[in-house]
């Protein structure tokens, strides 16, 4: 039993295995039957009896009112059979691929669709709060007893999902590739290790259970054959991270205690989990992380968390043994306040299972199979799948299709999605999935909808009955963030999941729908689905239920982000660009100055070493540890300080002999994305303290037409005083450039690399920002964004006030080079188009990203702070325009406003806009900051950047440095005052202080009582003070002890809220002074020196009480 596990009697709330009387498959049959009742007589003409997705069945007494998703069962399905001999599934390929079924499949009133989620991982929620705000809220909720905080290890691998041998195996955004082949092999081997001679029987039962229950398990797949992460694992393994009931409604995710019970029932590996249910434990956790964030490895992190957590549930497989000491990070999230009790019950009722196959011969390992089949990827996958066994891989259809004909084109035409959205849904779940896809396409979220033939249903295909798999692949986090915003406006939307796979069936029926019957079914399924979703939130409010924070450790980031991800920069652009890359990364992370200095020295040495060894041939990132591991091991051996920096190195596992052959178009997560279809993330230029004279400067404008960038550029160019810099200043006006603008800028930068360029063109999106970063790296320049200052809205960095001013300015212009002026009939539409290019980011996110990318940000004053609110007519016309723009863009995309369905509405609105702005011209002129003042402020900021005097504004991202010790910080002035009083009343003290007054004043910049130091007392001892962080603590100073080498005050620490603050030092004290060459730590010996007659002591009578905040240093 875990050390921190607590046992309490909760017999009446005993957590038990749910009954298996009504399995999910039975509930599914009720759904099918209920739908069939209103499809009475429906029959799709096809010789194969399996064709109808909703077959006619005899009715029984089940009613729609009883249509509720049944409780989960952790047990095996009764009557499950043992493993069977794998069979080759014959496909009717002529039907599957011939006849252009999809092209001939027309959508009409008789067309229906049925969509079911086949595999999925947790929804991805983007926290809008800063890390510090999330921490504060988590601590608040736990302190008030509203929630528990759960922390788990983040293993360094790839997402792998499994939904049964027919349901399929999936990677993050793909299936049927080397990643899923490796996944099913490792999972099947887990069963052999756990169940021994019973493995085949249990594998069959498990797959039968997943299929009948419509469930999916998600795992972190950790292996050395799919490329290097932070450390090559000694063993290939999986860890279960989620268990999902897919059902016929919204997916329901098991709680962590239920996952533990599920894993122990089936003997699957569970993760290491800690629960924090008190203020003391949760504050101690955050303090422990801050103490370890720059040097944490698996052993030290797990030990510290075991000491401060209320409950610790060890992993089935120890991270150190199977993956190594390099730990990627931790995931902390808020769960219900009852989670602690539930976990205690599970740990009591479900003890850790045995491993019956630990000493058995399990056959060839994954690495041996990969090493023996290195001719090509296909042969390697075939060998892996042959070794899996029939339970987990009865057929290889998802990987190869039917090889008897040349048909392995898994991709289906994109029109599948169009026809899916146009068809009538047969149930509530299908309608919700249609709603999700439709909204994502209308809002143009960065996502792909990839369609594939469903080979498992090939024999059921007919011209009127088509089966597909849909993969929803969200390309960037901004997509999740924007979808989350839509969910706030439409709470009934289903979440956007990570790893999102849907089975789609399009079919025809000549029978009409019975609206009453369909509505009854929909209502029943809706109630079951939505109510289940509420229960999954454990009664927490939406924002609180989704509170999560990911925390990574520097030893891992050193290897993956700084070494592996920096290889392309180092080899393609050289050491200078590589240095710029890694310095910027460390600045973003908030790495402490000391660690930055250590890392710079090590990384510079690494760059020299690897370039010398590899020459011009870039080291492959998939096997970078073959070179990095020996280098890090030798570097660590030089000193204990280096060992702490590296974390752990050595015991290299050679991957070159068995590395899986991965399709060049796949990324490490197995995404089926063509190289040319994805813009690679480019490393960014360093945040420079000053722009060196042999480097250039590029000033650009992430703004909107009317933001006065051209007028600003003209003023800066023609200013007699210039920027007080001897480099030439020139500009390139976008409206006068023929062809693509930014390649022209890049050409100018190459011609004049040391110049200051003013890029007079709006730069509204990340694609442009990446181009700017790229050209700056290649031409040794710093980029400076200049943005109009504005409060912004919840989803846009520019407020309606700012938009009104921009439109007003544009409509005042005449003879504009870009023809965007008062004579332009669609000027309002054009500005709305630019405005929406920024949609999805609020002002804080917008500024933070610019600062993090470019290290600087200049705000050009725009609106007076004391202005009166925007007049209602102006606000109304802008809101009407935004609504019209959204309607237009949903239907027509980027077609000009005069050419679409709403052409008449646009004409009317453009006139109304001009009339309203003209009527409010006095107001719009009065709220603007004078242009001359704005120019002067921008000019001064640019001067400061050129001189190196600039400091960027806060990006609102709290940086947490590495904590070393906890102490009470006392006011220095009060300590000096005490010494003055002692000197005036005690000749001995006065004599001692006279010769050391200047030394004490110089050294006593900070007076503190050290409570615990992580080197002396351990991380947990320091972290435990987190609950009192920033609280005022009284300290009583009772005596002065000194000799000719050092001096200190004896301290007695008081209490906070009735709880005494216990100091871990044997002698709590305030160090006042040490002689040259004497460390502050040696002051701890003063009491012993006094006892030996080698130090003097003066009692302070009466004692002096001073208070100060408890802080971490």
From TrEMBL:
Biological process per Gene Ontology, one example term: tRNA splicing, via endonucleolytic cleavage and ligation
Molecular function terms, GO-annotated: ATP binding; RNA ligase (ATP) activity
Residue numbers spanned by region Disordered: 1-25
tRNA ligase phosphodiesterase domain segment(s): 947-1091
One Pfam assignment: tRNA_lig_CPD
InterPro entries: tRNA_lig_PDEase, tRNA_ligase_1
PANTHER family reported for this sequence: TRNA LIGASE 1
Protein name: tRNA ligase phosphodiesterase domain-containing protein
Upper classification of the organism: Eukaryota, Viridiplantae, Streptophyta, Embryophyta, Tracheophyta
